[in-house]
Amino acid sequence: xxxxxxxxxxxxxxxxxxxxxxxxxxxxxxxxxxxxxxxxxxxxxxxxxxxxxxxxxxxxxxxxxxxxxxxxxxxxxxxxxxxxxxxxxxxxxxxxxxxxxxxxxxxxxxxxxxxxxxxxxxxxxxxxxxxxxxxxxxxxxxxxxxxxxxxxxxxxxxxxxxxxxxxxxxxxxxxxxxxxxxxxxxxxxxxxxxxxxxxxxxxxxxxxxxxxxxxxxxxxxxxxxxxxxxxxxxxxxxxxxxxxxxxxxxxxxxxxxxxxxxxxxxxxxxxxxxxxxxxxxxxxxxxxxxxxxxxxxxxxxxxxxxxxxxxxxxxxxxxxxxxxxxxxxxxxxxxxxxxxxxxxxxxxxxxxxxxxxxxxxxxxxxxxxxxxxxxxxxxxxxxxxxxxxxxxxxxxxxxxxxxxxxxxxxxxxxxxxxxxxxxxxxxxxxxxxxxxxxxxxxxxx
Length: 445
Description:
By secondary structure, this protein is α+β, with helices and mostly antiparallel strands.
């Protein structure tokens, strides 16, 4: 057992960790409970299945922290980014993928790797020996979750992650909707028309907000609290914060011109993003929800252009469990009380597909070094990967620890650059230039 790396969970983090370790010559076993044991959100038994959005967000590696993280993972030979690039869909400057083709690609590459074996079945206890990475994500099974809680001596932390609905493209009324990326962003015409837009006037918006607030919502179980992650708020929770919140969030009308009524400025706009390569499915951007299914169809059909919409998947909500990593993990992502176990992915308290995969990549490389008798230097905190792992393993305040996306606020300042909005472009470019050089130096060691 000691010469094999065992990985529990075949999501983004587990898949990337397995790829990194297998390519370094280790024998790897991925323990994936699906499809034998299902979850609320997953639909298949594929590795790296995307259950929420199909977007990896911005691909700008000079002005955006998540785009920088894309760059770092590509430089490290990451499988997740390779498959994302291969199955990319137009998304106006973002990196969106055909979710089914992406997951099938990851699964095929890992199952075909001579150093990788996938074992289906649930792991229910923490192993006492061997080398292990736990990358079970936000839907860690109840039994394993209880074992983790018993070992750490802490109550499990949780927030609720909401899923956006997906609409069949053929059911959308294109006499009312139109294709355009905000501000026509993108280098090609396809990218400049990557989003489908449904406009609302003021009366339609007010009626929509009224219906949203009045709709039947999913109830929480006794003892549960709705500690949502702000980057994934259900739309009804946003509406409860103020009637204009959605109009300044996912329904903002800026940068768009309705070709059906070019002289009429929409009061609000609902955007949908292509969800598969065929263009037959579109997900409603930012419309995560905890409304009951019947209420969803009624409310969403109030959106102009979606009056006759048919849904391939309705929205939902699930519990998302994560560790208080600043108190429980060491700098190499090992559980302090059981250092034969590393954690990776969303369970460590990072938020997002890319961040999860990046922590898997790092955990895989750290495990390789340890099993080969080497010690890697710490990842520079000036890099996107280093900034994230530094944050979750000690940089964050343990008492208020919450899941975090990568952002430039986690990076050490660059001396001599002015702050504020006016200096932001130069400051971000300095961050990314420094990060790329430091990351490449770390990889070369």
